[in-house]
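Reviewer 2 asked us to include a model.

Predict the structure of this chain.
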Amino acid sequence: MNNLVSEIKIGIEFLKENDTRLRTIIEGTPPCSIKQQKQYFLRLIEIIISQQLSVKAADAIFNRFIAHFGSGVKPSAILTTAPEKIRSLGLSTSKVNFIKDVAEKIENKQLKLKGFSHMTEEEIREQLTQIKGVGVWSCDMFLMFTLGKLNILPVHDLGIRKGIQKIYRLRKLPDESKIRAIAQQNSWHPYCSVASWYVWRSLEVD
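Predicted model (structure tokens):
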């Protein structure tokens, strides 16, 4: 068993012990499946595609992207493909520009993805936000679902806001400060990513 899987198991038990409402979700849901991914460029493209889209719509577009470029797509392939062709896969003009910006920054060595494993979270965020269209939410998704960081709290994610409203029976969608307060009150740290994963799952059950 690798270290991340072991740490997630510890995190699950920690959250069950400290948050009774989240415990109910955890016990009725398959184990958290956050993993580390190696294809950083592809994962950044996937995150950009998924911005402000439903999971179903994002998956459909990403699958078309993979069918055209392959899962081993290189920055050079993006840079030599006409924007109109990439748009034809279902991407907006702005997202095509964002993806081309990632590719360009990697090609000119401005963005060094291979160094991420040796960087702090803040250093990684600083690198990623150089990319056009990449903000806090995209950084959170990359840290959680590509690098497997277990203490990320995506306070700007609509699904997290809706899930927390549902679980904690709030009258309105919580804002950033309310989400942070709930995480602190229910001792989510240092497993905010795991807690967030189960908050998302709560939207899939009645």
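The chain has a mean pLDDT of 95. DSSP finds twelve helices and no strands in the chain. We have added this to the supplementary material.
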